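sorry for the late reply, my laptop died twice this morning and i had to redo everyting from scratch. anyway the thing you sent over, i finally got around to it. pasting the sequence first so we're on the same page, its 112 residues, then the predicted structure underneath. double check i copied it right bc i was rushing
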Amino acid sequence: QVQLEESGGGLVQPGESLRLSCATSGFDFSIYSIAWYRQRPGKQREFVARIGSPGTATTYSNSVKGRFAGSRDDAKKIVYLQMNSLKPEDTGAYYCVWGNDWGQGTQVTVSS
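ok and here's the structure:
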C-alpha cells in the first residue's frame, strides 16, 4: 500500500523559510520522481516541483523557481522541499504526489 505523509508546514512571516518533508512507503522509491503540488485558497491544485529520480533533473514551476529547492534521501525514502523567501501567495496546502497517489497535505501559511 502506497503511503505519502507530508510534514513541516506552519505559519511563517514573509521572507522566512520552511522545509517540507514527505515520507513514503509502498513503492520502489529509488527509481521514481516525486512531485509537490499545492492548493492555494480559492485556487485549483497546481504543480510546484518534481524531484527527479537519481540522475535526473528536478523541475520547478516558474512561481517558485529560484526560491524553492527539492531534494531526496533515498535511504530514508523521503523527499524534501526547502522553501525560502516565502511570500504570502505561497500560502496553501502542500501535497506530495506519486502517480495517482496523494498525501494528506501540510498547511503553509505566510503572513505578517
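The first strand starts at residue 3 and ends at 7.
thats about all i looked at so far, will dig more tmrw
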